[in-house]
Design a protein that fits this description.
404 residues, alpha/beta, Rossmann fold, 2 domains, five-stranded parallel beta sheet, globular
């Protein structure tokens, strides 16, 4: 037994042990397997295996094979998960790295696994590719941590492949859904300080504090954010500006990084509407985000520009590729979803159908379209799960904070 528990923290693959596979994933369902494959991406080592078995069969399967260097165990639904892991420890070599997927969300269980048993990390279902990329992939790749910023809320940068594709509408509704649907403290940040539309979508008045913060970063603190952020609804705040077109904004070096760090201390999620440009604010927000979301329409220009955005180098805190959202699918005169996927050689992660009447009515009234059930809300639920790890009301217990 290692000093950390039943399992070791590290396992170094050795050319002298070719019998040991680099990675074996024991999963119970196709959805979890798909999330693992997508999340590991290029880090998936040659010779890795995925086995679809019930959790009660894991011990027998491991007993019949040489111990892999890393194993992923899907123990969701097992009546005695800790006893199962104890049985696993009796049939594997002690230097194996163990990653666990389950269905319990309490912090005590997490601590029992990681501190008591030496499990490298734990995720609870539903598991998304983004979560796998951020938490499991560094372990599989032997990289340790990703070197992300200090703990805090999650910054999601949403960028339209072209103007008018609906990125602002998605940001406004996604932030509202996180705040009202999933009870998370959320901030919608409009990075277009001249012609941003988030204030209009929320029927709110932009504050005057954002410009000063970006030009004088030494002023950025919790008090400034409290004064500059406009309360839209309970748990939902807006940070935006409406500067004169003749007044150029010059972002001071480090101002965006300091602004993001301050926002992450106050909010579980920051959803930034970031129009792509070479301006400092837009570039820095894309680099600072934990995840990028690219919104496109099913047109040839949309495909071209979306592909260009997907080719941008990732920021240092981004473990997963940008999520691709295909908006206004099915609109007359546009390409079918299948053709878009074939042309781009990547399927959209979320498809939002064309609902012009519903979206325009909501925008005119200053109300979120996601407040009503239907196809748009279902698509936003899917995006919230993939981008933020929230797809249902918060689970009981303190462990829900780890899914931020």
């Amino acid at each position: 037994m290692s000093e950390t528990g039943l399992f070791g923290e590290r396992a170094e693959a050795s050319g002298g042990r070719p019998d040991r596979k680099p990675l074996v994933c024991f999963v119970a369902d196709a959805e979890t397997e798909q999330s693992l494959r997508a999340g590991f991406g290029e880090a998936l080592p040659p010779g890795a295996e995925f086995r679809r078995i019930d959790s009660s069969q894991i011990v027998a399967a491991l007993r019949a094979m040489p111990t892999p260097w890393t194993i992923v165990l899907d123990i969701a639904g097992h009546p005695q998960p800790l006893a199962l892991l104890d049985d696993v420890s009796n049939v594997v070599e002690p230097n194996v790295r163990v990653l666990v997927i389950g269905d319990r969300s309490d912090v005590g269980f997490y601590r029992s696994l990681t501190r008591g048993l030496g499990v490298a990390d734990y995720l609870y279902k539903p598991v998304t590719p983004t979560m796998v990329a951020e938490h499991f992939t560094p372990v599989v790749a032997g990289r340790g941590s990703l070197g992300r910023a200090a703990p805090g809320g999650r910054l999601v940068a949403v960028t339209g492949a072209r103007g008018g594709v609906g990125a602002s509408t998605i940001v406004a509704n996604l932030a509202w859904l996180a705040a009202q649907g999933f009870q998370r403290h959320s901030c919608a940040l409009d990075a277009d300080v001249y012609r941003g539309t988030l204030p209009l979508l929320y029927s709110a008045i932009a504050s005057t504090g954002l410009r000063g913060a970006l030009e004088r970063p030494e002023r950025i603190d919790d008090l400034l954010i409290e004064r500059a952020a406009v309360k839209v609804e309970e748990r939902l705040f807006l940070l935006a500006a409406e500067e004169g077109l003749a007044n150029p904004l010059v972002c001071a070096p480090g101002s965006v990084e300091r602004l993001v760090a301050t926002l992450r201390r106050r909010y579980n999620f920051i959803f930034a509407d970031v129009p792509f440009s070479n301006e400092t604010m837009a570039r820095d927000l894309l680099d600072q985000a934990q995840l990028r979301v690219v919104v496109m329409e099913p047109t040839l220009p949309g495909i071209r520009d979306a592909l260009r955005l997907l080719q941008l180098p990732p920021g240092q805190g981004q473990a997963f590729r940008p999520l691709l959202v295909l908006n206004r699918a099915g609109r007359k005169g546009t390409l079918p979803v299948k053709q878009v996927a074939e042309t781009m050689k990547v399927a959209p992660d979320v498809v939002i159908p064309d609902l012009p009447a519903k979206i325009e009515e909501a925008a005119t009234l200053g109300k979120p379209a996601a407040a009503a059930k239907g196809a748009f809300r279902a698509a936003l639920d899917q995006l919230a799960l993939k981008a933020c790890g929230v797809g249902k009301p918060p689970a009981r217990g303190l462990f829900r904070v780890f899914r931020r």
